[in-house]
Write a structure and sequence with these properties.
The chain starts with a helix and ends in a 13-residue tail after the last strand. The longest helix has 19 residues. Strand 4 and strand 5 form a beta hairpin. Strands 1, 2, 3, 4, 5, 6 and 7 form a 7-stranded antiparallel β-sheet that branches. The chain has one domain. The protein is α+β, with helices and mostly antiparallel strands. It contains 2 helices and 7 strands.
């Protein structure tokens, strides 16, 4: 990721002035480029980015992405995902600090039937988080299969 844009990402919500829509679009695009490098797959990006910039100290965004191509094999899968960025509170040395964080929630489907796939133990989403390493650079980390704790993703279908 471009170092300047990455620093802007880590400083989001802490600046005196809000970032422009254009800057947010660049940040989101490079986050998705990094994710694409991680999964080594092409995917489609929704041209519509949902930006919420009314509160300077609490910006947030969301954007949908999905599988570029699919095969009609009984073993093929397709996926749909949402990348979201928001301020979150983390505990650091006994104090809570607000930082900006990006997550990516992915939904897996069987390609021919479009049936959503989940584990028999109930986990129905695959979660990724963009985290800062000790050297100050960010990377995508997979949290693996996760439960939809609040049921907010229950109605997601492949279209």
């Amino acid at each position: 990721m471009d170092l300047k844009l990455e620093q802007m990402f880590w400083n989001a919500g802490q600046e005196k002035e809000a970032y422009t829509q254009e800057i947010w679009q660049e940040i989101i695009d490079v986050l998705l480029d990094d994710f694409q490098d991680l999964i080594k797959q092409d995917f489609q990006r929704d041209p519509k980015i949902r930006l919420y910039l009314e509160k300077i100290n609490y910006p947030s965004f969301g954007r949908s992405i999905w599988t570029s191509n699919r095969e009609d094999s009984p073993l093929s899968t397709v996926w749909f995902a949402v990348i979201a960025g928001d301020m979150v509170g983390i505990e650091e040395e006994g104090n809570v600090k607000d930082i900006f964080q990006a997550t990516l929630t992915l939904f897996l489907f069987e390609a021919s039937s479009k049936k959503r796939l989940c584990l028999t133990t109930g986990e129905s989403i695959i979660e990724f988080v963009f985290e800062k390493q000790s050297d100050g650079r960010g990377y995508w980390r997979s949290l693996g299969w996760c439960n939809d704790e609040w049921g907010e993703w229950e109605d997601i279908e492949w279209e």
